[in-house]
Amino acid sequence: MNDCIFCKIINGEIPSYKVYEDDDVFAFMDISPVSAGHVLVIPKKHAQDIFEIDDESHGKVQKVVKKLAHKIVDKLGAKGVNIINNNKAEAGQTVFHYHVHIIPRYDENDKLELKFNPDSAVVIEEVFEKIK
Predict the structure, then answer these.
(1) Which parts of the chain register pLDDT below 50?
(2) Which of 2, 72, 101, 107 meets the CB 3.0–4.6 Å disulfide criterion with 84?
(3) Coil, strand, or helix at residue 56?
(4) What's the number of domains the chain is made of?
(5) 99 is a catalytic site residue
(6) Residue 30, exposed/middle/buried by CB under 10 A (0-12, 13-18, 19+)?
(7) Smallest Cα–Cα separation from 22: which of 72, 47, 57?
(8) 38, 46, 70, 99: which one is catalytic?
(9) Range of the domain at 33
(10) How far apart are alpha carbons 68 and 20 in whole angstroms?
(11) What is the CATH number of the domain that holds 119?
């Protein structure tokens, strides 16, 4: 895709801090990291989001995500990682080329905060019936 910033990174038109590349997958440092070592993993074949990516490309991306998550924990001393993928603008996606964030977590004071709603149990059964 001509105007896709991630396609331009893959093609070398925009510089990046590449941490991994093979025939199908490219990974690089996020330029607005949540924590030290925040990496983005993308398929070389353009797909906008989880709804467009083909199963083969998705599987290849996930294998690299797992490999790099191990490396981040081992080499950077992270205590864990968050693996995040936003799909569609309403879910926070800002670059419309499928990508997975690997965000190292060093302690509970890291910048990323995920909040879960304990009161959400009320709607679980209703939603369950719709998606099962």
Answers:
(1) none
(2) 101
(3) helix
(4) 1
(5) yes
(6) middle
(7) 57
(8) 99
(9) 5-131
(10) 8
(11) 3.30.428.10
